[in-house]
Amino acid sequence: MPQLSEPVRSRLRATTSLTTAQVKQRGLAAAKAAKGDLWNGRQRVTRVTTAPKSDVYEIRDLVGSRRLMSFRLVTEVKDGRTQVRLDVEEAVLVAPSRLTRLKEPKVLALHTLKQFLAALADGLRSEDPDANVKVREDLKP
Q1: pTM check: above 0.85
Q2: CATH architecture assigned to 8-127
């Protein structure tokens, strides 16, 4: 399966007054909410590693045997506000072919990523109404 050639930056950008720990808790809550669907496939989002400034998440198939996507949730405090960024680092693509009848490559876990982004954005906005949250759901650089 083809992979992304380079990381896709900034699928989510936010500026909030929440602390880094609160943002990381919102990320864990969003991971529980994002489960995929029956049409595109059920998947799991799990936090793989955590560090003071970033957490790495993976989207795996329901069985857990195949990694479909990995992304990093980066938090940084500047001027008393927390800057949040989500970067997709790796994703599995299905290439166009006559058997699949696709006109352009399809990202296998994109629907689960969209669920994660929506849940994280809603969580940030619900805890901090003054948060500035921008979401891009495509995987174009």
Answers
A1: yes
A2: 2-Layer Sandwich (3.30)
